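Budget justification aside, the reviewers requested a transparent look at the raw inputs and outputs of the sequence design task funded under Objective 1. We therefore reproduce one unedited record. The lines immediately below are the structure tokens for a 681-residue chain.
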């Protein structure tokens, strides 16, 4: 860690008054991997300042949540200066965790939700993992643990398990340890101690792997409490004593007091009252040093109980009086805080009403703007469709004139030889076939306009009329806007495919062939389809025969469009719960990309017309998705324009494999080897 970082931390500490000196034991803890990638970039001063405060907040998030909150707020200021959603999300996540630790769970939930929104906007795995942990941690602290909130606990567990998946993908060991401890804590609160034990033991393994003593102490203490709840007292005592040892090495008074109290509790149940009393008194010493009244009261009550059990009633009476006095002062302080909180809540309520009025006005303006935008989009779409129809009609007229000229030439050339007549007959048949194709295409275009575009345009028009109703609720307005976007996207896809096909056939699409690494292009394409695949519980894998770059001679944008078509088709025709595998194979002079699904397969009849235009196959999408019948035709033309080949191999009922083969660009490095399997979603 740089000297600049230490200087920033000490300056912030002195300015905020949150703590006097950063404990040496904390600075010795390995920096969380969440902070390390930021330091590897070429960053400006604001970004460096964000790093310093953010890293310091992470280091202090467990031992000193108040100080961590101050530092994370300062990190947020610099992140907002840069208007960086990822950095703002990370700062808010640390703030939310700190707010939970200081018993402000409602504020923590709000911060966590904002962090999650920004993480999704940034599409950052690590930010998503931190935001989900902050929400789950705050939600878990609000559970009563008496079994009455089991449904809420299920929701919290779902959040934490989803976040754990992102944390493992991001490779952040410290955050993963937090997740294991957090999930175990929820299971303990609802009385599922076997499940809790599994996750706390997992947290202990992760903490040992990373060398994080703070998390190792929490995990050891939590394992002890699980064994205690299962009446496995000897095992509970071992882990409780281990947590005392670890936490004394870290040097934070509150966790030490907590672990010493746990040892005293277990020894008391084992009947070793004298030893239990010694641990309880030592726990009170650390609790007094920590200044936490609740921890001190708990230690005093335990000493009073153990003293009475050992026959020392004088000490029991003395400590019980101290416990009662401290308990009364805590209650009085909480009541005073309630009065102040009420005044604060009234002020917040007034502010909320003012904000609600501003939001209402802004919503009305946005609704008017959306209505104008929708009308403009509809007009543009109709204009494009009319242009396509005009082009088709002009082409039909041109071919008709050619046919007429050929017929006239044929009529005037009766004196020519039989060979010439045969040649003209062949040309005339060719033109007739082309005319028939164009006529069919024109009919298909008219069908698309009548069915695939007329209904969406009518729907958009209907929704636009609904926007004129100013009494619509904000929730219904948002739902209508989402439907309009979905319908517009479907129309845009159809129009884009039609224009791409027209450009390919007319030679208006140009390809820039160069050396491209196929593996990252395939992985990026699959990542874009994570959400669509997850909606149908489909898992997507990519397998590469090499860890080195596999270069092909192709146009990068054309490859992306080809992969996009093949992967979207595989998802579209795959049943729920199936797998999709994308394999990349290399030979001496070519690279193959295979997209294999577990769908219904393709019949022999469908295989004959598979890559034709406007083809409707017997297989149907499994999730009511839309198909234009142009995608595979575009794929074939693009691959052949890049001097490649594309074909399909399929057995009916056993899925299908689409294969794209492109020329290889070699660099003289070894590329053969065993497959490397990567889970993409």
């Amino acid at each position: 860690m740089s000297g600049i970082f230490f200087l920033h931390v000490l300056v912030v500490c002195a300015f905020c008054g949150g703590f006097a000196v950063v404990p040496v034991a904390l600075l010795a803890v390995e920096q969380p991997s969440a902070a390390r990638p930021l330091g590897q970039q070429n960053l400006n001063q604001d970004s460096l300042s964000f790093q310093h405060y953010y890293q310091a907040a992470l280091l202090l998030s467990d031992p000193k949540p108040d100080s961590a909150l101050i530092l994370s707020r300062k990190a947020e200021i610099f992140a907002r200066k840069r208007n960086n959603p990822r950095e703002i999300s990370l700062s808010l996540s640390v703030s939310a965790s700190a707010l939970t630790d200081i018993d402000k769970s409602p504020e923590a939930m709000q911060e966590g939700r904002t962090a999650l929104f920004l993480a999704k906007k940034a599409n950052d795995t690590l930010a998503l993992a931190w935001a989900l942990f902050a929400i789950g941690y705050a939600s878990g602290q609000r559970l009563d643990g008496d079994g009455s909130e089991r449904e809420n606990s299920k929701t919290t567990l779902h959040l934490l398990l989803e976040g754990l998946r992102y944390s493992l993908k991001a490779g952040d060991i410290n955050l993963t340890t937090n997740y294991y401890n957090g999930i175990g804590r929820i299971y303990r609160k609802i009385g599922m101690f076997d499940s809790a034990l599994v996750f706390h033991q997992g947290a202990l393994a992760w903490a040992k792997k990373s060398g994080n003593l703070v998390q190792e102490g929490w995990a050891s203490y939590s394992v002890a409490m699980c064994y205690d709840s299962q009446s496995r007292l000897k095992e509970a005592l071992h882990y409780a004593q281990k947590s005392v040892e670890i936490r004394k090495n870290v040097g934070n008074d509150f966790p030490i007091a907590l672990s010493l109290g746990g040892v005293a509790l277990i020894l008391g149940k084992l009947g070793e009252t004298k030893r239990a009393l010694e641990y309880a008194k030592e726990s009170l010493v650390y609790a007094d040093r920590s200044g936490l009244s609740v921890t001190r009261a708990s230690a005093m009550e335990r000493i009073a109980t153990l003293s009475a059990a050992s026959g020392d009633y004088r000490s029991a009476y003395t400590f019980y009086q101290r416990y009662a006095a401290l308990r009364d002062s805590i209650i009085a302080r909480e009541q005073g805080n309630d009065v102040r909180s009420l005044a604060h809540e009234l002020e917040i309520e007034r502010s909320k009403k003012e904000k609600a009025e501003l939001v209402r006005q802004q919503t009305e303006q946005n609704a008017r703007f959306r209505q104008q935008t929708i009308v403009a989009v509809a007009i543009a779409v109709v204009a494009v469709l009319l242009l396509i129809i005009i082009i088709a009609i002009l082409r039909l007229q041109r071919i008709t004139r050619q046919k007429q000229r050929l017929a006239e030439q044929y009529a005037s050339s009766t004196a020519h030889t039989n060979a010439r007549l045969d040649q003209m007959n062949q040309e005339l048949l060719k033109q007739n076939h082309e005319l028939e194709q164009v006529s069919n295409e024109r009919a298909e275009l008219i069908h698309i306009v009548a069915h695939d575009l007329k209904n969406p345009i009518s729907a958009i028009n209907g929704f636009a009329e609904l926007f004129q109703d100013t009494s619509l609720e904000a929730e219904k307005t948002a739902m209508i806007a989402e439907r309009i976007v979905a319908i517009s996207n479907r129309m845009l896809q159809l129009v884009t495919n039609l224009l791409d096909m027209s450009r390919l056939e007319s030679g208006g699409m140009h390809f820039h062939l160069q050396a491209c690494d196929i593996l990252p292009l395939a992985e990026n394409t699959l990542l874009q389809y994570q959400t669509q695949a997850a909606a149908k519980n489909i898992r997507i894998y990519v397998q590469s025969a090499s860890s080195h770059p596999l270069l092909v001679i192709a146009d990068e944008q054309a490859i992306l469009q080809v992969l996009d078509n093949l992967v979207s088709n595989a998802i579209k025709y795959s049943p729920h719960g199936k797998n999709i595998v994308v394999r990349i194979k290399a030979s001496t002079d070519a690279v193959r990309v295979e997209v294999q699904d577990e769908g219904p397969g393709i019949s022999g009849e469908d295989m004959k017309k598979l890559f034709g235009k406007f083809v409707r196959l017997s297989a149907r999408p499994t999730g009511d998705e839309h198909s234009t019948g142009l995608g595979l035709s575009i794929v074939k033309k693009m691959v052949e324009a890049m001097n490649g080949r594309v074909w399909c191999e399929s057995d009916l009922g056993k899925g299908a494999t689409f294969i794209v083969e492109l020329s290889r660009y070699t660099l003289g490095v070894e590329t053969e080897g065993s497959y490397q399997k990567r889970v993409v979603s």
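The beta strands are 514-517, 539-544, 551-554, 579-586, 590-596, 645-650, 656-663, 676-679. The two ends are 35 Å apart (CA to CA). Computational costs for records of this kind are itemized in the attached budget.
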